[in-house]
Amino acid sequence: MRHERGRLMDKATQTELEAAAFRRLVAHLGARTDVQNIDLMVLAGFCRNCLADWYREAAAEKGIEISKDEARETIYGEPFAEWKAKHQPEATPEQLAAFAEAQKKSHG
Can you give the residue ranges of the SMc04008-like domain (predicted)? Predict the structure, then answer.
């Protein structure tokens, strides 16, 4: 059990709080369609697709099989191809250069 300002927090409560934070992150990313995945990767080292992969991997750890497309739909709120067509333009040369530089830093 974790302690939170002198109070005990049981594992179920911790899990509920983590799930609520996850849902809020997904909703926030859903509302911020102006923020491109490549920009998230450059600044934070993860994007919506990473989050979908982590979701799928967590399910697999519990013996639940979720496809890549199903996981992405959970994160994007619609099939990825539809979201991409509506909200994701081609990356600019500047974005690609920033991404390449960020990759060097994280792998170098």
Answer: 35-100
Handedness of CA 76, 78, 81, 82 (dihedral sign): negative
What's domain 32-107's architecture? Orthogonal Bundle (1.10)
Model pTM above 0.90: no
pLDDT tens, position by position, for the chain (108 residues)? 555 565 678 999 999 999 999 999 999 999 999 999 999 999 999 999 999 999 999 999 999 999 999 999 999 999 999 999 999 999 999 999 999 999 888 765
State the Cα–Cα distance between residues 32 and 44, nearest whole angstrom. 15
